Every structure is written in C-alpha cells, then in structure tokens.
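2024-03-11 09:14:02 INFO worker-7 job=invfold-0412 stage=load source=structure_tokens
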C-alpha cells in the first residue's frame, strides 16, 4: 500500500510541476490553485509513504516519477525536444525507479 501511495504522490508532483508552467509565475489563478493543491497533496502522500518506506528510496522514486512524468508532459504539451538521447536518459530514470522498488525490502 505504501508503494501505491508513493506512486500517487509522484503523480501529484507531475501535476504541480506542470501547473507551475501554466501558472506563468503564479499570475494565473486557476493554474496557480491547481499547482498549490498538487504540491500539498504530493507532500502529504510522500509523508504518509515515509511511515514505512526508507527515506532515500522513497525520495528517489518520488522525484523519479515526477521527473519522468513532467518530461513526458513537456514533450507532449510544450513541444519540448523528443530526440533519442533524451528518451534514453528518461528510460534510465525509469529503470532506476524499477530497480529501487525491486531491491527495497518493503
């Protein structure tokens, strides 16, 4: 259950990180509110997962999910580059996330 909570926390990290872009420096109300709600939800769920998961592992997985998700949304919605090298390195992050989950004793 803690891994599921951590995964959802990572998805909320994607929400708030993407919301930052749409908020245009917190000058747009709705994206700013979504960003703040996403940030609070992400931190709260991360804190819940830390009740039983190791800090270093949970934090690395949380940021990895956020990084991969935000990079993908950047490619899809903001037309950021989608070259092979970039995709390979995003893939390395995914492999790292999976590896940390597999070697975790929780």
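2024-03-11 09:14:09 INFO worker-7 stage=emit residues=106
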């Amino acid at each position: 259950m803690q891994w599921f909570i951590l995964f959802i926390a990572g998805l909320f990290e994607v929400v708030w990180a993407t919301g930052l872009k749409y908020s245009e420096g917190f000058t747009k109300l709705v994206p700013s509110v979504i960003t703040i709600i996403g940030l609070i939800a992400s931190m709260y769920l991360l804190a819940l997962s830390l009740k039983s998961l190791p800090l270093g592992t949970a934090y690395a997985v949380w940021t990895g999910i956020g990084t991969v998700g935000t990079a993908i949304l950047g490619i899809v919605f903001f037309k950021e580059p989608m070259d092979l090298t970039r995709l390979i390195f995003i893939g390395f992050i995914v492999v790292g996330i999976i590896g940390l989950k597999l070697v975790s004793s929780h």
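2024-03-11 09:14:09 INFO worker-7 stage=report msg="The chain has a mean pLDDT of 96."
2024-03-11 09:14:10 INFO worker-7 job finished
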